Structures are given as C-alpha cells and as structure tokens.
Amino acid sequence: MYTKEQKERALKEFERVGSVQAVVTLLGYPSRHTLYDWYRNKIADIADYHGSLDKEYQIKQKYINAPNHPRNPDANLKLDAIKRCFSLGEGVEYVSRDIGYSRASIYSWYRKYQKFGVAGLMSSKKQIKRENIDFNIEPSEQQDISELQDQIKQLQMEVDILKEALGLLKKDQGINMMKLKNHEKVVVIDAVEDKYPLQQRLKCLCMAKSSYYYQKSVMKRPDKYAKIRVQIKMIFQKNRNCYGYRRIYEELKKIGVTVSEKIVRRIMKEENLTVPIKRIKKYSSYKGEITPEVDNIINRDFHAERPNTKWLTDITEFAIPAGKVYLSPIIDCFDGMVVKWNIRTTPDSILVNKMLEDAISTLAPYEHPLVHTDRGCHYQWSGWIEQMRVAGLTRSMSKKGCSPDNAACEGFFGKIKKMKCFNGRSWIGVTMDDFINELNSYIDWYNTKRIKKSLGYMSPVEYRHSLVLFYADNQICPYFYLLLYLIISVHNKFSYFLTSDTHPD
C-alpha cells in the first residue's frame, strides 16, 4: 500500500518530532497504528540483526522513556487539555491539533482523571519521575479554583465580544447580546476568532454551528436587491427624505417594481433611510374671547363627501436664525388639499384675511363651505367675520385650548415641521425670502406630488383629476353640482310658496 520511500520518510519525521499525531498531520499518512507498527518492526529488525537488544536499541528505548519526550506529556499538560475540552467547551479535535496529541489520548486522560483524580494523570513508568503535586489541596478546593479560573476566562470573552459589538455594529451601551440578529452575531464571532475557539464563541452568543455557517454562506452571496436599493434611495431623496416604507412601496409599484412592503422596510432600515421626528413646543394664538361664542359645528368630523364643503384653517410659526415666519393655510377636508395659503413675517390680520380672500375666489357660486378655526383673535375680529358673512360661509370654532378639535389642520403643520427638509436642516445664512420660497415649494409638492394612503396612494391633485376623468368616462355632466344646486334651490322656493300664508287662496 505504501512505498518504501514513504515508510522511510514517515519514520524519519517520527524520529525528528517524536509525535505520531504530528507526523500524520504533516504528511497526511499513514494512520497512527500503522506508524506505530512500522516503528516497532524497525526496532525488531535491529534486534534480530544484532541478535539481541544492542546499544542503539537501548538508546532509542531510553530516549522514548525520557521525561521530556513528547510521548510522555506531564500531568499539567493533560489537566489543561481536559479543562479546555470538558470545562471551557473547546472542541476535542481543535485541542488535539493544538497540543499535538490524539483525540483518543485526551479521552483516555479524561477517564483516568474521573476515576483517580490528578494522580491518575501521572505517568506509571518507573523511569519517569512523578510531577510535583500538592496533595494538601483538597479536591473540592482544586475544583473551586478551576471553576473561578473558568469564570474569569468566560467573563473576559464576554467583554471582548461586547466591545466588538459596540465598535462594529454601532450598538448602544447596555445592548442585549441575545437580541442580535444572526448576521450580526456572525460579524462579532469572526472579529474575535484569533482569541477564542469557535465553540466558545458560539456558546457565548447562543448560536448553533449550522446557523453560523449558513449565515456565512448567505453573506458571501451577491445582493439580489442591489438595483432596488438604488431606486429606494432615489425615491426617498426625491421626496424630501420624508417618505416611509408604505409610500415608497407604492412609488415602486408605479414604476413596475414588484417587491413586498417587508423587503422595502428592511432595505430602508439597512440603509438608514429614516425620517427624524422631533417634539416641538406648541404655538398658541389664543388671546381670549372678544366676540360672542361660536358653536363647534364640525365636532371633530373631518370627513367630507365632496370638495369645498369643510375647510380648516390655523396659524403656525417657523423660527429660523433670520427671524420668524408665519403660515396660514386653508385645508380642504375632502382630500387634504391646501386650497390657498399665505406666508408673512408678522401674524397680523392681513395674514388670514388675504388667505381667506384668495380661497373664496376659487369657489363656485353654489359653494359655501363650513370654515372651522380655533379661538384665536384673528378669527374673532370684525374684518374676518364680515368677510365670512359676505361670502356666505359658516363659522365653526374649537373649544378653548383644545387643539384636537382642529386635529386635521394641526396634523398638516406637524407633517411639515417633522420633515427632515425643515426640522433636520440648518437654516444659518438663509434669508427670509429664501425660506418663504422653500415653504411655498413644499406646499406645492404636498398638493401635486405627495401621495396619500387614504387617496389610493395619489396626491390630492391626482385624486381630483382622476374624479374628473371618472365623470367624463361615465358621461356625467361637468356642471353636475351646479344643476343639483339649482334643482334644490327651486324646490326649496316652491315649497316655501306652498306653505306661506301670503299666497292667494
């Protein structure tokens, strides 16, 4: 099976290193038992050639039985190997390769240690002096010391792993290592591979070996969502960094990209595409009651069946280094569209009156919406009330100090101020005019581009355009609402004529 040259090379390496396991590991052949047989046959051949155990044979035997020979490890090495395998959890094969002794030897040492203790690990050969062992130490004390040493090593490993997790994964202090995802655990495990055996690292992070190697193979695969990642980033940046995963999912559907919401959410989390939210102090324009109280007609019912039936308005403040800017919009409850808005640097009457005047100019003759406000002084002075009366608009006001009564309008302000384009941006060096232009641009984008789930993931302008197309496709008269208004008006007047006491008998 093996050539003469292979036998001679194996025996030569054995005489050089003195370890059967080392020779087998180095050459890859033969088995340990075969190498032992070759060596015994060689010694027997020498004895037969000389007729007896000659000087060379005796020298070899003396060398083999020497205390410092690799075949005769001391008790401390054996004890250390047992602790590594059966206390610290290292693999027997790993320890076997590390110390240069076979797995069978380690198991044999362990059986002797269980049966006879430390004394069982000492050599039984007479030629070898026994190691110095302090027999005054009780077995329980030895066990306690070994357990404490094991605990120290375990704690040191946990500290090293925690440091790597904080550094590589950018986790906060106080992290729970058990809540790490498998691919994160793999990163940490590989970071300390030079310090600790794999079995210990896996045990510390409660990860199965199969899961470890599976994640390793997954991490080597090419990213099948590489193209989608680029598209998600473009959509996120294009829409002022304020789209969540649902809106981005709908935008991907529009361009023909089929992927689940879960995948979009995961990719956005991996790419750190998050919308920062900052709590800010609420602005209150309430100055007290200066006119008779107005009922809360809308009563938190912000639903409207058609456009221009329920309007909401309020004032909000933007503070930048250059000064303060005030926004006053008209919000339509039908689809959330900003009908008209006005921006000024002072919260005076012109701010709200000009906004209301522009909004009234968009109404048809038959449209008289309900206008809901808070109890700010801007909505209780005579100029505002007169403008509402002339246009035939109905007033509705929130309760005192109750912002939820105007929640739909307050929500619009929150969307603006929580967006990164305003909240997370530095306005140092920006003039008031530039800020006003940016604010106008955002509201225009809000009306024409920003999609809403309640509108079937369409913007308010797109939604109203789709309704016009629907009426056209179904051959509905474009003056449907006007005709309906005229019919109702004629009916009411005719009914009044029939019921009036002034008509002739």
Task: Describe, in plain words, how this protein is organized in 3D.
The chain is built from 20 helices and six strands. The chain is an alpha/beta fold and 505 residues long. The protein has five domains: 4-64, no CATH class; 148-220, no CATH class; 226-270; 310-462, 2-Layer Sandwich (Nucleotidyltransferase, domain 5); 464-499. Strand 5, helix 16 (382-391) and strand 6 form a beta-alpha-beta unit. Helix 8 packs across helix 9 (182-191) and helix 15 (349-360) runs parallel beside helix 16. The radius of gyration is 43 Å and the shape is elongated.
Number of strands: 6
Task: Kindly report the average pLDDT value.
Answer: 78
What is the 3D shape?
elongated
Report the CATH architecture of the largest domain: 2-Layer Sandwich
Query: Could you name the CATH homologous superfamily of the largest domain?
Result: Ribonuclease H-like superfamily/Ribonuclease H
CATH hierarchy class name of the largest domain: Alpha Beta
Which structural class fits the helix and strand makeup?
alpha/beta
* CATH topology descriptor of the largest domain: Nucleotidyltransferase, domain 5
- Tell me the helix content: 40-55%
Percent strand: 5-15%
**Number of alpha- plus pi-helical segments:** 20
Number of domains: 5
Measured between the Cα atoms of the first and last residue, the distance is: 134 Å
Which radius of gyration do the C-alpha atoms yield? 43 Å
Q: Enumerate the spans where pLDDT stays under 50 for 5 or more consecutive residues.
A: 49-57, 59-67, 126-131, 133-138, 496-505
Order of helices and strands: HHHHHHHHHHHHHHEEEEHEHEHHHH
